[in-house]
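Forwarding the complex inputs:
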Amino acid sequence: MKPAQFQLLQPTTRAEALAVLAEQPDETVILAGGQSLVPLMNMRFVTAERILDLNRVSGLGGVEVRGDRLVVGAMTRHREAELSPVVLDACPLLAHAERHVGYVSIRNRGTVGGTIAHADTVAQVPCVAVALDARIVLESVRGRRELAAGDFFVGNLMNAREPDEAVTEVHFPVRPVGSLFGFAEFARKVGDFPLVTAAVRLEQGAGLSRSARIAVGGAGPTPVRLAECESALEGRELTGALAEEVGRLAAESVSPADSPFVSTDYRRNLVRVVVRRALEQALDCGEELR
Amino acid sequence: MREIEITVNGERRREAVEDRRLLLDFIREDLCLTGTHAGCEHGACGACTVLLDGQAVRSCLMFAAQADGSELTTIEGVGSYPDRLHPVQEGFWEEHGLQCGYCTPGMIMASIDLLAENPSPSDEEIRERLAGNICRCTGYVNIVRAVHHAAAAGREDQS
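Prediction (whole assembly, two chains):
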């Protein structure tokens, strides 16, 4: 359980980091918080000649609201995103989901940009990113581009990043006034990898859901929006019965792969349960608003 | 190899390390502080928990070179037997919060981190926080009691 040899590169500026990455993009692996990468290196599932450590690069962390976006620097620690009053106010769904990421000692190191780039289908922040249509900012020496979360995640542990690009920011839309939100997951124990996650946000008008966003993770290779469930919610008042109905619809609209430990039927049932629970949370935050 | 400088339990240490040296192995093998335990070595068990610049982290999930310039606290820096036990160590002693002791250093570091943030945690808060530290002996009941014991001692100190 010791990582294979590598050269650790620790630049201190963004320009320097991108230049280091551009030198040998295919031989360089980017190290953010290391809470997923280092286990993979310890087990030698990942070996690399060069590890580019972003921890000493200035200006890659921190959160701020710019217009209608909450801009989260890639090196923002999960623990900071979880506890930040700025995040709680601008994007409470993200703050709530962060509480479920690993354990406190993992969240003290792990980063928002890292979990996005790692692209695990059961990870909490990617599920929120897909639900809210977050924008992933990629930078390289060639320039800067933005991808919608739905286009960034291309498979389990796979993303649309070019080898010379680094995820530098994640932009979440600021919560519309009076919108309801919820995040639920099923994990065998607190802090463990969940089997399924669900994130919802409902924009409200006159007691009805004007527009709905629902994403589930763990039911396929990437987190996905559930269009049928969203239309089932739109124009209706959220109630416990509707949450139950949409949960059932969600279970019918996913086709998770069978695995030796988690059968398709079981995972589908978990989708039903977590979607219902996420909607029940949204219902609770509606009660608080009244 | 590269030179790093870390303040360990209040003492400044300069050591040469390989880039791939895990902080955990640096602590155990280079500094010979074997109180920090190597359990799963992939972030699941919490036995290797230390405080880095005051925050609980898993020392198996970072490289020693990344801790260059930091302040590190290991179980050896927390307290010592018999006269200078930390209140959390007292709690584990009094409530019999350990059997084989393998998870104990990590449990104590995580509990210190919890109590620094929340001096009067509920059962549920203790259980949730320590969910990242696995114990295969105790069944956790006495560990929860140990943390309550330490919390009560801390409150007494305050009054």
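The CA atoms of residues 11 and 19 of chain B lie 23 Å apart.
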